[in-house]
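call fold(seq) -> tokens
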Amino acid sequence: MGFEPTILYEDRHVLVVNKPAGWVTMGLPEGQETLLTWLKRMIKDRDAKPGNVFLGIVSRLDTPVTGAVLLAKTSKAAARLAEQFRQRTVSKIYWALVEGKWQKAKGTLQHWIKHDPRFHRVHITHAKDPDAEEALLSYRLLESSPDCSLLELSPKTGRKHQIRIQLSSCGHPILGDRKYGAKTPFPAGIALHAKEITFTHPVEKIPKTVEAPLPPYWRSIALKHFLADQA
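ret:
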């Protein structure tokens, strides 16, 4: 699977890890490695736990996406964090490298999308479609060249593949994302990284922000101003 996950923050109640590209978060058939099974085994070995390790994933990332994934280490923490996601009080910041020169400095994208289970992807649709879900995404342009642009993104809704389809529908697919029309390759996965997550600690009740470093291969992109010091 290439790079292994790294722990960004851990205490008795929560765990935040930096997921590499190519790792499925959870849900594969028994016997197949996922981020969840790997972390459970790692904690069991590290802490010499005699029984099963409880871990609940409360935020997921698509397989080709990298960055911060939030997990709960107790059932109480899992329930409280899941409620924060339902109430949309958890905020996530992503960075994306997209094809072409993005023009506007900042703004919000609004689309209506629907899931197509046959091809494991989503499509743009219209508001009157009975299967439509609203997708809202705020963006800020960090840097651009004629061939590539770096965006900072803040999704206001948590729809499946929404960042990928919304950027592609604007004519700027994410580098490496062939499923959504990209023609430019990327060293691993796609150029979408969950850079920061902010949540209320389920026990301490205080805001907690955790940042995930960019994968080192982002440095290979020609945009140097932001990427040189961040990767």
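The radius of gyration is 18 Å.
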